[in-house]
Amino acid sequence: DAPINESGKVTPKYFEVRKLLEQYLPEGETLSEIPDSIPTISIPNFELTQVAPLFDNLPDAKESEDIQSMEFFNQGWGSILYRTTLSASDKPQSLVVTEAHDWTQVFINGEKIATLSRMKGEGTVTLPPVQEGTVLDILVEAMGRMNFGKGIYDWKGITEKVELKSGDESQVLKNWQVYNFPVNYSFAKNKEYKESKVVKGIPAYYKGTFVLDKTGDTFFDMRNWSKGMVWVNGYAIGRYWEIGPQQTLYMPGCWLKEGENEIIILDMASPSQATTTGLRQPILDMQRGNGAYTHRKQGENLYLSAEEVFYTGSFKSGKGWQHIPFGKQEKVRHFCLESLNSYGGDDYAAIAELELLGEDGKPVSRQHWKVVYADSEETNEANNIASNVFDLQESTFWHTDYSTSKPEYPHQIVIDLGEDKVISGFSYLPQTGTNKKGMIKDYRIYVKMDPFKK
Question: Boundaries of each F5/8 type C domain copy (predicted)?
Answer without folding.
Answer: 352-454
